[in-house]
Amino acid sequence: MSENADAGAKGASDGAVPAAWEPVIGLEIHVQLATATKMFCGCELSFGERPNTHTCAVCLGLPGSLPVANARAVHFGLMIGLALGSELAPRSIFHRKNYFYPDLPKGYQISQYEEPLCRGGRLGDVRIHRVHLEEDAAKLIHVGASGRIHGSDASVVDFNRGGTPLAEIVTEPDLRSPEQCSEWLKLLRTTLRQLGVSDVNMEEGSLRCDANVSVRPAGARELGTKAELKNMNSFRYLERGIRAEIARQVEVLQRGGEVVQETLHYDPASDRLTSLRSKEEAHDYRYFPEPDLIPVAIDERMLARARAELPELPAARAERFQRQLGLSRESAQLLAFRAELGDYLEAALAAGAEPEPPPQALANWVSGELAGRLDEGADPASSRVTAAALAALVGLVSAKRVSVGAARQVLDKLVTEGGEDPAAIIEREGLAALDGGEELAAVVAAALDANADAAERVRAGNEKAIGPIIGTVMRETKGRADGGEVRRLVREQLGI
Amino acid sequence: MIERSEVLAVARLARLELSEEELEPMARELSTVLDHIATIRQLDLTGVAPTSHVVDVTGALRPDEPRPCLPREVALAQAPAVSADGFLVPSPQA
Amino acid sequence: MSAGDILELSASAAAAAVDSGELSARELFETYRVRAAADRDAGIEGLNCFTWVADEVPAEAPPAPLHGVPIAIKDLFCVEGVPSQAGSRILEGYRPPYTASSVSRLREAGACLLAKTNQDEFAMGSSNENSAFGPVLNPWDRARVPGGSSGGSAAAVAAGLAPWALGTDTGGSIRQPAALCGIVGMKPTYGTVSRYGMIAFASSLDQAGPLTRDVSDAALMLRHMSGRDACDATSLHSASVEPPSARRLDGLRLGVPEELAGEGIEAGVLECCRSTLSLAEGLGADVAEVRLPHAPHALAAYYVLAPAEASSNLARFDGVRYGLRAEADDLLAMYTRTRHDGFGPEVKRRIMLGTYALSSGYYEAYYGRAQRVRTKIAEDFAAAFQSVDYIVSPTSPTVAFKLGERTSDPLSMYLSDYCTVPMSLAGIPAISIPCGLSDGLPVGLQLAGPALSDSRLLDAAHALEQAIEFDPRAARV
Ligand SMILES: [Mg+2]
Ligand SMILES: [Zn+2]
What CATH number is given for C3-251+388-475 in this structure? Predict the structure, then answer.
């Protein structure tokens, strides 16, 4: 008995996968390349312009028009291949993938098939199968009933997007959980963003991810029958879609059923998977070498250019942060995989602040205190807090010239007001650390008087009782005092 | 002789309607031509590389430089059916 | 200059006459325009050469070096604002928003668009009977076909309705009609002329070329349209075509392949070609036999590769963006009916054949094998050119045949291209020149050379042409 997904895949998304089953997932990622023009014609890429204003004879598939491949798209493809450690084909070939659809003006998509630009490679724990170049389809907008076509349902085709260059990145089936998929996809996104080859925005469709999902008995070597999941246009939906499909397949298999190979469409609104082509005939794309294009021949000059433009990539950067700056592994990865945080950290370290902030402390302030005060995912470089100001502030904290609590208040001010000089804010607001001199000693003495009971208990060996005393000092000093220094003075004055 | 069902399957792939009267002659003519073509199936072609291009051109890539697009009304001018925004087609979902 | 005198001028001579002031560009153009319009108006009572004729003389004085010589252009070429429908109903009313690169180049050199010529639909055919505009008639005998697919171009030049014409050749579509109409037709090396704006039949084989009264005109037209075009990735940097001047063939070796000179070739055609070879020897050439062992398989390979590419190239005719659309409620019916109504029987056959050959399970048996046969054919030619300079054969196995004679048997029609298809598969240049008459109908001789030998091939053809002294006047209308 075989079952397709229409039989109700709703909502199985929360249960954990039973230990007897192992999900096997491979991803197919389409990345819109950030070239100026389309893959095979000189039309500028479109960003929400009026429909059908970015077209020409070539991308409308007019009779007699011919494609010519975009050199920068090939260049970006090479950069991606180099970044993923792929083998680059000295000669790669474009094929035609033939099928009829209104968003496909020529009746075929020009794509790479037998000889892709890049083969193999790896990113993190996941092996890359291949990377190839192709053209995007146009956009089909459903407009409902229209009198123009005999009152039946109609769609409108907008060819602005048609022909946008895509890199298709296909992984090996190395992923094992929905969470791992979205984590890995984030790493890929950062990598591509670092490369500068794409906007990689899932919501806007410049990064699109399909997943091939199968399930097999734990420990089995053979792969189960896979289903192809499409339309998961956010990291959240990607996880939910895959989770739902794993649950569905496990359920089918546990009942002794058989999974059918099919294409499923994920609808986030209903959290449902529906079969796209279960009723249609099997596709026969009749691939053959595109006779209008010659093979893409990669020469040393093109390779050298791609290598020269390769920036430091997240994995390498994380490693360098650990080695060079002595950051913890977690901290290094966090800052490297969110490139804007890493860039900010490096700018802060280069600001030459006096006293000099230790890298780990600065890293914590960037990824914790500062990022926490900004919108989720925001680039701190576009906030009011300059890297130099943060570096100066963290330097003062480390030198104990300002307490952590007071520094947080200074950062609040910097976030709202900006400003180059945290020391000036400290001065203005009277937030400078009390430096253990007579002033602080007097506050401590007063606090001990006010908390006589607690003082007695501390003296008797109850360390926890010190809390209220320190709290009083902090309150009195508006957080300017250093906690460690206060604790030392309390113990000193109590004679322990 | 190529089967009637096969002719219909190919016609569907090619999005070509064939009337009942067209079907039989099409099957017959295709068979005649395919029989002739079958002669190449007898040739020994082991180790022979396929030729897709007879000319050896390299470096025919296009610089990533914008060229003028067609004005919208020109792009739409030849279409059999248009709406305000673009090319109107029966919905694929219908 | 009288109209009669004007019509006697080759395109080169006409350009020279305008340049020297003997003739005005207006007068030249108008003389041909009137004749072409009359043929168009007569429809099938005339030769039915044209699908469209210019309705006025160009306003601006055309530039050198062609000085406004009128040119007829196969309907397959897109010309901005001018009906261009590749002889097909599916492109009814289509006026492209851009112009083919080859046509633009000829215009920049001073040629003026006189007319679009009738052709087999999407260049598929060898008799010009597969046109939405009806058949073209052969000016030598109106009961016979002009050949195809550039039949309108060939008949127009032969009949003196145009000084010269632009055509396309995929498996013989310039050379065969040129032979059947008694004019010169050349398929240049693949890639010499940009294909941009030429409605595609089979992309890896399609090539534009001249149909002219003499070899010098062919060289002149090729000179002004060849060269690398950034819009066509398969176009070549080729050396400039020089005006042919040779009158002797001293030291040149002509190879006659037995595969293209025996079985299936009409006796009268063989006879004409033989006597031309004797003339060639008289001009100092050595004539020798060569072998092209795989040439007999060329037709089979061609009828896999060309329909396969065509089935894909013609997928864009779907009723969405241009051309015909059949009434239909759903998308699938819109596709299938539009294509049913828009394509003629031969185009449908080839779409079916090509779709079949590419479909899953058949690709290797058909397309893959055909590509390997193509390799063998190219190797045959390369080997032959080790020992000879040019290969000589009849262009067409027969003289012009009767209208309707082969329409019911596709294979017999396909055999018309038996001698021309091998050169197409190899991508090498080949020219057909008239070499005599058989039963009062013209016979064409084909000369082929190695890739990029176009200029010297024209030179050799010129020397032979001078010796043959073919008289074309019987075809003039
Ligand atoms: Mg793809
Ligand atoms: Zn475009």
Answer: 3.90.1300.10
